[in-house]
Write a structure and sequence with these properties.
Blueprint: E1 2-11, E2 17-22, E3 26-33, E4 35-40, E5 43-48, E6 51-55, E7 60-65, E8 72-80, H1 82-87, E9 94-98, H2 102-118, H3 123-144, H4 149-165, H5 172-179, H6 183-194, H7 198-216, H8 221-227, H9 233-244, H10 249-258
Helix pairs in contact: 2-3, 4-6, 4-7, 5-6, 7-9, 7-10
C-alpha cells in the first residue's frame, strides 16, 4: 500500500516553522504535545495533542508553533501505490481526526521512530510494517469516527461475545439481551460498524477456525464441522466455500502434499 520515505520527530523546538512549499509525499502526523498552526492550500488549520492529520502529496503547506510555545509530533512520509490511492480517494487535500486509540498510536509511532533512527538489522522491514499498521489504524479510525462511542462499545461487546461463543448456536435475541437493545438495532448497528451481520461474523470466525483445524490437526472435515457447531456438513461446506472461495476438501489435499 505504501513506500516508506522518512520518519520524523519534532521535539519541542521553540523556533519550529515551515515555509510554504508543496509536499513531496503523503504525510501522516500524530500530535503528542502542544499545538501547531498549519496553512494547507490557503486553509488555516490548528492541530493539537491527540490529533491525527493526513496531508496529501502536492498540498501547499506552511506551519508554525502556536503562541503558547513549542510542540511535539511524530510524522511518517510515504508514497502510496494504486491501492493506497483508492483507499484515500475521498480524503481531499487533508484529513484530520481525534485519535480514539491515542496511547496505542503514540506507542507505535515511538517504536517506528526508534527503529528508523536505530537502523538495526531488518529495521526497514519492521518500519514498513509499522507504517502500514499506522495507516491501517488511521483508516479504521476514519470509519469509526462516524459512530458514537456508545455504539462502538456495544458492538465491541457483541463482537467479543461471538468470538467467545462461536461454537454455540447464537441468536440475535440473545445478543440483543446482552447489550439491552432491540434485535433490529443490534443487527443494523453491527453491520454499520463491522460491515457484516452478527451471524455472518460468527460464520467468518468459524470458517477461519476451521481452516486452522484442518491444516494443523488430524480432524476430518466432518469432525471439524461438528466441533464448530454445524449439524449439517453440507451446510458447513457451502459456508466455507462462499467465504474462502474454495471447498474445505482442498485443504486436505494441501495437508497431504506436505506429508
Amino acid at each position: 500500500m505504501l513506500e516508506l520515505v522518512s520518519v520524523y520527530l519534532d521535539d519541542m523546538d521553540p523556533n519550529w516553522h515551515k515555509e510554504e512549499e508543496a509536499t513531496l509525499t503523503d504525510i501522516l502526523i500524530l500530535m503528542t504535545h502542544g499545538r501547531v498552526h498549519y496553512m494547507l492550500n490557503g486553509e488555516t488549520l490548528t492541530v493539537e495533542k491527540g490529533d491525527l492529520l493526513l496531508i496529501r502529496k502536492g498540498v501547499m503547506r506552511a506551519g508554525e508553533n502556536a503562541q503558547e510555545g513549542a510542540h511535539q509530533k511524530y510524522s511518517v512520509h510515504f508514497h502510496l501505490n494504486e491501492r493506497g490511492h483508492e483507499l484515500f480517494a475521498d480524503a481531499g487535500t487533508h484529513l484530520r481526526l481525534k485519535a480514539r486509540s491515542y496511547d496505542y498510536m503514540k506507542q507505535r509511532f515511538a517504536i517506528l521512530t526508534q527503529q528508523w533512527f536505530g537502523q538495526r538489522m531488518y529495521a526497514d522491514v519492521i518500519c514498513t510494517g509499522i507504517a502500514h499498521e499506522l495507516l491501517g489504524g488511521f483508516l479504521q479510525e476514519t470509519v469509526e469516527s462516524r459512530f458514537t462511542s456508545v455504539k462502538l462499545r456495544l458492538m465491541s461487546e457483541v463482537q467479543n461475545y461471538i468470538a467467545a461463543h462461536y461454537r454455540e448456536p447464537i441468536r440475535i435475541e440473545e445478543l440483543a439481551q446482552l447489550v439491552d437493545r432491540a434485535p433490529n438495532y443490534v443487527t443494523q448497528s453491527f453491520k454499520e460498524v463491522t460491515g457484516l451481520t452478527p451471524i455472518s461474523y460468527m460464520h467468518q470466525v468459524r470458517v477461519h477456525a476451521a481452516r486452522d483445524l484442518i491444516l494443523n490437526t488430524r480432524m476430518t472435515i466432518r469432525e471439524v464441522s461438528d466441533f464448530l457447531g454445524y449439524s449439517d456438513q453440507a451446510h458447513f461446506n457451502r459456508v466455507f466455500k462462499k467465504m474462502m472461495g474454495y471447498p474445505p476438501s482442498s485443504l486436505i489435499r494441501e495437508v497431504q502434499r506436505r506429508s
